Amino acid sequence: MRILVTNDDGINAPGLKVLETIAAEIAGPQGEVWVVAPAFEQSGVGHCISYTHPTMIAKLETRRYAAEGSPADCVLAGLYDVLQGARPDLVLSGVNRGNNAAENVLYSGTIGGAMEAALQGLPAIALSQYMGPLSEDLPSIFDAAAVHGTATVRRLLERGIWDQGDYRLFYNVNFPPIAGADVKGMKVTTQGYRKDTFFGVEPHISPSGRKFLWIKGGPQHLPTAPGTDAAANLEGYISVTPMRADLTAHDDMTRVREALE
């Protein structure tokens, strides 16, 4: 099996090392793991592509490259430059440092990398590690992902739904913020919504008197509705959420047609 790996935390991120290990176990001794990851952190860029300026790419080691671009850029670079058209069998994005559950999905570069792979017609999985008080003192904050990552990916490959639709299905996996030994299992969930948790800005004045704005997020441990991703994670479960890039509100199409046509 040939696997392409990317992330949004950057080429030197510890979560990427965890994912490379997972990918190597999935690919097997006769397989190939190719890494194309951002040269610098790209958290929060979503599905951005560098459409208006070029992306520099550098070979660091055999099958390991760094690109000055977003995770989606890295997927494109991997498919059309690094692999020279030899398409991978699977694209893995992560393991992100922090959850990509609920509204975080919409901002996540980790999700953006998997989404671009799906738009290119490839099986793709995004993986993220929820952080919390119970994981901070572990030898590795990625313990749950490291312990359960390979089995989770393998289960998705063997038993998951992999369609051939125009907006191909991909998977968003979040590991709970606890030790791997304490993980209770896996739950298939919908994307949740944290009420009263929003991104905002925090202004600061520099020594030169200029104002700068820092983007800041809200609390990450507020419960979401039962059956959703963050709720499952905070209960100690791995969440698996099937997703598509199609943003159409299909559930309201009939009402909108009746109102407007």
TrEMBL record:
Coiled coil: none annotated. It catalyses: a ribonucleoside 5'-phosphate + H2O = a ribonucleoside + phosphate. GO terms for cellular component: cytoplasm. One of its GO terms (molecular function) is nucleotide binding. Residues 3-195 form the Survival protein SurE-like phosphatase/nucleotidase domain. It is found in: Cytoplasm. InterPro entries: SurE (IPR030048), SurE-like_Pase/nucleotidase (IPR002828), SurE-like_sf (IPR036523). It comes from the Bacteria. Its EC number is 3.1.3.5. It holds the Pfam family SurE. Binds 1 divalent metal cation per subunit. Nucleotidase that shows phosphatase activity on nucleoside 5'-monophosphates. PANTHER family: 5'-NUCLEOTIDASE SURE, PHOSPHATASE, PUTATIVE (AFU_ORTHOLOGUE AFUA_4G01070)-RELATED. This is 5'-nucleotidase SurE. It comes from Rhabdonatronobacter sediminivivens. The lineage of its organism: Bacteria, Pseudomonadati, Pseudomonadota, Alphaproteobacteria, Rhodobacterales. The gene is surE.
